[in-house]
Amino acid sequence: MHFVDAKGILTGSGGHYGMNIYRGCSHGCIYCDSRSRCYQFKHPFEDIEVKQNAPGLLEAALRSKRKKCMIGTGAMSDPYMHCEEKLRLTRRCLEIILQYGFGAAIQTKSDRILRDTDLLYEINKKSKCVVQMTLTTFDDGLCRIIEPNVCNTRRRIHVLSEMHKRGIPTVVWLTPILPFINDTEENIRSILDACIRVRVKGIICFDMGLTLRDGDREYYYAALDKHFPGMKRKYIERYGNSYEIPSPDADKLMTLFRKICQENGILHTPGDCFAFLHEFPEKYEQMSIFDIGLKDGGL
Q1: Are strands 49-51 and 70-73 parallel, antiparallel or unpaired?
Q2: Which of 3, 92, 107, 251 is spaced 20 to 30 Å from 129 by Cα?
Q3: Phi-psi bin for 122: left (phi > 0), alpha (psi -120 to 50), beta?
Q4: Cα(61)–Cα(243) distance, rounded to whole angstroms?
């Protein structure tokens, strides 16, 4: 872990912005796209770059904005990695988002987010908060292999349940689905059944497969050699150096995914899910019971 002073913290424009408080990750997921060379890391991926001035930059940025909107975090680096336990930079940024009346859309795999439930609840009460969790496999044994340094799927489902109890909407990222590893109907059904049970608002699934780029591909193949002997050869023979790596059963699994989501009223197209994540509710004034009584001629 090393500390830097960043020049800026928000990216994007218009109706929503994103931020990454950390750069790199300690979760060790074997498929992580953020390892790809195109992101030009100048330090080892596990040597987390900490933007120590992130709260100050965020406060200055939000103070200057007249129009409220959603602030997203977690797209590139999980905001609830191990270092967040002591550094608490994510929590401080949430406090600033709450203070200035903005909304928050947080993407994570970690149950450490439960520590900040109080802030998430207050943000959602004042404007809007959405918690996003990545779910890839319902098998906890497999989860420990492909996502070794983060809580298992059952624990993440517990997080989703706790958020629902507090009225905080949730979105699940059902991605990636690894060919010949977790691309089974049983796995997809089990995850979707859990999503239905904890009342998720939407599920993002671009396709049943994964993507591999230079840097990411080498790390993934090394993990296949270690945990799934012979699988690397199977991938090379079928996909070569392709960027998109679809499951052989992608069409069947996507049909199943859409059917179950439609039957249960779950947002499931990327467009609909992102529209919900980016939408900031218009400010309105709630009428008190006294006001309602006067309007109706009561009291």
Answers
A1: unpaired
A2: 3
A3: alpha
A4: 36
Instruction: Taking residues 49-68, report their average pLDDT.
Output: 96
Nearest to 69 by CA among 128, 130, 133, 131: 128
Segments in the chain forming alpha helices (H): 54-63, 84-87, 89-99, 117-126, 140-146, 153-165, 185-197, 216-227, 231-239, 250-263, 270-278, 289-295
| Span 256-288, pLDDT tens digits | 999 999 999 999 999 999 999 999 997 533 333
| Tens digit of each residue's pLDDT (9 = 90 or more) over 101-140 | 999 999 999 999 999 999 999 999 999 999 999 999 999 9
> Which residue, chain included where needed, has tokens 């992102």?
274
- The full length of the chain comes to 299
pTM score, two decimals?
0.92
- With vertex at residue 108, the alpha carbon angle to CA 219 and CA 71, rounded to the nearest 5 degrees, is 120
For 220-229, give one letter per residue: b (16+ CB within 10 A) or e.
bbebbeeebe
Residue for token pair 């800026």: 8
The C-alpha atoms of residue 294 and residue 289 are separated, in whole angstroms, by 9
List phi, psi (to 5°) of 211. -120, 145
What is the spatial distance between Cα 92 and Cα 169, in angstroms, rounded to a whole number? 21
Closest CA relative to residue 167, chosen from 126, 203, 125, 208 = 125
Task: Give residue 129's Cα distance to chain centre.
Answer: 13
How crowded is residue 292: how many other Cβ atoms within 10 Å of its Cβ? 11
Nearest CA to 148 among 55, 25, 9, 276? 25
